[in-house]
Specification:
By secondary structure, the chain is mostly helical. The protein has one domain. The chain contains four helices and no strands. The radius of gyration is 33 Å and the shape is elongated. The N and C termini lie far apart (about 70 Å).
Length: about 120
């Protein structure tokens, strides 16, 4: 018993057993149970919803920034083609960029899955 008291007095909880509960400890026990229940509910409900919200917000932000970047790059390519390529005509830039995007669309269209495979 002297070893247990000295371990508790020194702050070493490895050798100490928890104190016996009395009728006066029931508010602390109730508070502990309520805290553990609330923590469990939060961990199982709010934490996953926080993660989903974070993914949605950052995904929308990335989509917005990438679409603006795509438009700016397309404008820059058209501008470079009109100013620096010898015909110096807008139709040439439109034809080059239109051909590129048409080719990209055809490649993506050929890689699509059939409708039956998408349903599964």
């Amino acid at each position: 018993m002297a070893q247990t008291r000295s371990a508790v007095a020194l702050g070493d909880s490895a050798g100490a057993s928890p104190p016996a509960t009395t009728d006066r400890d029931w508010p602390a026990q109730a508070a502990g149970v309520i805290e553990s229940v609330v923590t469990t509910i939060r961990d199982r409900s709010v934490a996953p919803l926080e993660a989903v919200a974070r993914v949605l917000v950052y995904g929308l932000l990335a989509a917005l920034v990438s679409s603006v970047l795509l438009v700016l790059v397309a404008v820059a390519v058209v501008r470079v083609l009109v100013v620096y390529v010898p015909p110096h005509r807008a139709w040439f830039a439109d034809a080059v960029l239109g051909g590129f995007f048409s080719l990209l669309g055809l490649i993506l269209w050929s890689r699509r899955r059939p409708r039956k495979a998408r349903a599964r």
